[in-house]
Specification:
Length: 125
């Protein structure tokens, strides 16, 4: 419980998921913004490969935690962008892309590949 006597999932459901959906999801291109500025606007930063699977996983459990927002839409859009922008011809996932989706770093790092598996596991369920 937090200081107000609320379960930690209360913050996720009432604050984080609505913010992530309205501000963190890239509703123009699909996928997710790397980060938000203090004013809540997307930072426009390059996007790391591990960002997408983490957000996919987080949205995949959102309904179970009590969020009534469009979690399945966020998962679908995240998986679609992950496959389109990060997947290399050899089936591994590159490390960094521009906000436009253009590849910036082709190198596949094991740490990123592990997150990709986590994201796919969440999306599958």
């Amino acid at each position: 419980m937090d200081r107000e006597g609320q379960a930690p999932s209360g913050w996720l459901v009432q604050r984080a998921y609505p913010c992530w959906w309205s501000r963190g999801v890239d509703h123009v291109r699909g996928g997710f913004h790397e980060s938000l500025r203090l004013d809540g606007e997307p930072s426009g930063e390059t996007r790391r490969a591990r960002l997408y699977p983490r957000q996919i996983y987080a949205f995949s459990v959102a309904t179970e935690l009590g969020w009534s927002g469009p979690a399945a839409d966020a998962v679908r859009q995240g998986v679609k962008a992950l496959l389109a922008d990060y997947r290399r011809p050899d089936g591994l996932y590159r490390g960094l892309v521009a906000p436009s989706g253009a590849a910036l770093i082709e190198r596949a790092v094991l740490y990123d590949q592990a997150f990709v598996l986590l994201g796919f596991a969440g999306a599958h369920k």
